[in-house]
Design a protein that fits this description.
Order of helices and strands of chain A: HHHHEHEHEHEEHEHEHHEHEEH
Number of strands of chain A: 10
Number of domains of chain A: 3
CATH architecture of the largest domain in chain A: 3-Layer(aba) Sandwich
Distance between the termini of chain A: 42 Å
Strand content of chain A: 5-15%
Oligomer: homodimer
Strand order of the largest sheet of chain A: 2-1-3-4-5
Number of helices of chain A: 13
Largest sheet of chain A: 5 strands, parallel
Radius of gyration of chain A: 26 Å
Chain lengths: ~325, ~325
DNA sequence: TTGTATGCGTTATCAT
DNA sequence: ATGATAACGCATACAA
């Protein structure tokens, strides 16, 4: 339980009997050094168990080799899978991942961005409530901090990895129409704090209108309602006559499936249900989830590649 | 798109027409300062958009206010939920979360621990393949870096947030026995790289033996087998006579449910299936998942509280 | 109350 | 080839 003792390059230099600069050059394989000194430094480093302090390096080099990532919540598989994708690419490139989550709160969002920026991250990968109105995000960009958006439809001059929510939603409407559905609904969770959700509804409704069909019913659920199948069943029942539901995400779609079965009806015979995201678990369900596949991990990977490219370009 | 310009405390001091130390004292509300200077410094900081550099602070203060967290993969909801729990507690305490994942690879595990330690994290929260044999982890502890294990049964003198895998598995065996099952199996993914999985099997088998029942069949699946319900169904069919299955985790249990249905049988009428973890989605399934509830997010929260307590104690 | 100077771990510059 | 030293952003001991 010895107390925190860090071995610095100074220790290595002393042990090897050489100057700090020389030790640095040897350990970094930069500059030149005689075979003899090289050997001494390397064994000294090994014996002392030396490893560079990322902090010292960051302070001197101006780069922290750390990327900040903000998502609403890791409890939602879409974001967890996306972050895993980010992590995969990042670690391959020698970067570390600093993570934050907002729990779908717009203020927390802004605070998190500010904190991340203060941590001197080299770049930001972000999914937030209202990126287009985030003062912290704008400030970060003005400061020259590279930002890559995830899941968001493009904004201003920000880079963005995304699917076209509007177009995808139109596809859903088209599928429903082809199946003869005229009485449809769009179910959303936190509609007001998700541009993704709003864009999906907009596309869904637009296509319905274009086909002369009635607007889909918009149902905004609270977390409690979505997580309690009995309650959800009650809500669906009260709407009557519904034959097709477009759920704003897979999690919700699964809940709707359950609620439907609770009502003694069956999916998709009595009710068509389509989700959005394409989370892994959806493929393992008894009744495979019909959904818009967005490949969350690929989204994370793409956002990261985009960001790293930008980072290279500036360096 | 102006290039990266960081405002330092030096800039604030110059703008406010005072010394660096004074600016630091005012901004940190430490030490004393005249109302006049205080005012000048604060407005200067505001106007320049100053915020402290966490790196400078870390280097000077010896603490980075950052905690490193290693899990096998965020694509597995158990870990994602746990990490979210960690994040919740951490952000409340003013700490940042540096994350890494190993993709269930023992070597990657060790490398990640080393990298995290080099980042000068103040503590480590870890779920890995073989913590008891990890040289990097032992080294970290010897260096005085506080470590908190997540999901692992206790090891040596490490702190650990966990459920008693062995005991929980015995409970499952007991339940099965009470239902009259004698022909059982334990399904695992990456059995060799998960002490959790091994302990669960051990407990399951121990209880079976204690009751004079035959040993449960141990089936190790590859990722491919687990993710292809048809293949899984084939494997289950080839075993014949099986009436109860204990799956090493919920993800797997859900796959088994699907495979079973594919075989024309029903859960739980023809086959009892029990999982492990208690991931959120399990509650939303048509046939609610029978499982050992471990409350992953609570596990993450507990591991974090434990770690922070340790951190306080040492400070 | 205030400012100067030092050190944290590293790399780069510049002599030697 | 090698080493002393400045600089990075910050907090603090110390001097004024």
């Amino acid at each position: 339980m010895g107390h925190r003792q860090k071995v610095t390059i100074k220790d290595v230099a002393r042990e090897a009997g050489c100057g700090i600069a020389t030790a640095s050059r040897v350990l970094n394989k930069s500059g030149s050094a005689s075979a003899e000194v090289r050997e001494r430094v390397e064994t000294a480093a090994r014996e002392l168990g030396f490893s560079f302090s990322a902090i010292g390096r960051a302070l001197q080099g101006g780069r922290s080799m750390t990327i900040g990532c903000l998502v609403p919540s890791l409890a939602n598989p879409v974001f967890a899978e996306a972050v895993q994708g980010v992590q995969d690419v990042l670690s391959g490139a020698g970067y570390q991942l600093l993570i934050a989550s907002s729990n779908y709160d717009g203020d927390a969002d802004n605070e998190a961005i500010a904190t991340l920026a203060a941590k001197d991250v080299d770049g930001l990968i972000v999914t937030m409530v209202a990126p287009e109105r985030s003062a912290a995000l704008m400030l970060a960009r003005r400061r020259g901090l590279p930002v890559s958006l995830m899941f968001h439809d493009p904004i201003d001059g920000f880079l963005s990895a995304h699917v076209d929510n509007f177009a995808a939603a139109r596809d859903v409407a088209q599928r429903f129409a082809a199946l003869g559905h005229t009485n449809t609904a769009f179910l959303a969770l936190r509609f007001s704090s998700s541009d993704r959700s709003r864009n999906r509804y907009a596309g869904f409704r637009a296509e319905c209108r274009a086909r002369g069909l009635p607007d889909p019913v918009l149902i905004e659920l609270t977390e409690a309602e979505a997580n309690t199948p009995e309650t959800l069943a009650g809500i669906l029942a009260s709407l009557g006559g519904l034959t097709a539901i477009f759920a704003s995400n897979d999690f919700l779609a699964i809940a709707v499936q359950k609620a439907t079965r609770l009502m003694g009806k069956s999916v998709p015979k009595d009710l068509s249900v389509v989700g959005f995201d394409g989370i892994e678990i959806g493929r393992l369900l008894d009744v495979p989830l019909a959904t818009i596949e967005t490949a969350p991990d690929a989204m994370g990977r793409q956002a990261t590649h985009t960001l790293l490219d930008l980072l290279q370009g500036k360096a």
